[in-house]
UniProtKB/TrEMBL annotation:
The keyword Cytoplasm applies. Belongs to the RecX family. It comes from Blastococcus aurantiacus. Residues 59-99 form the RecX second three-helical domain. This is Regulatory protein RecX. GO terms for cellular component: cytoplasm.
Amino acid sequence: MAPEEMADPESVARNLCLRALTGAPKTRQQLADLLADRDVPDDAAETVLDRLSDVGLIDDEAFAQAWVSSRQAGRGLARRALKAELRAKGVDDDVAATAVEAVDDDDERETARRLVERKLPSMRRLDRATATRRLMGMLARKGYSGGLAAGVVREALDADGADDVAVAEFDELDEDALLP
């Protein structure tokens, strides 16, 4: 940034933050990183970030709750994946854990079931072992535990009338033993 633009670093920081917040909510850490990338002095950045927090424009708790609600419903992510995404956005671990508590075991299982049901029609031409492996992989990428995934996939394939013999390696998975 040109020296004349930094004559009032707080004004520059405030403008950068407000412009960034116009598109979508951001965490305090995301804004701090933006200001650091633009070479805003640390004291000016902290002053502006504190002020924006005081007036409610930066609220990591509200951000985390909205993120969890949106990503769990829209993308079907499990608690583990949601917590990892929040950490990557700079949300404090305690705040992330509190936000993720909104998703209970039943919600997580139901979401996994819906994901599998949506994918199942494209798996009908495959043998049971291949379908199981692909469905389990999809759920694993979304953060679901092996036990939960195995149970949901097995139930869906059984209900769908998959012809092949059950896949022994997945049938042996105990849902409770694999939960975090």
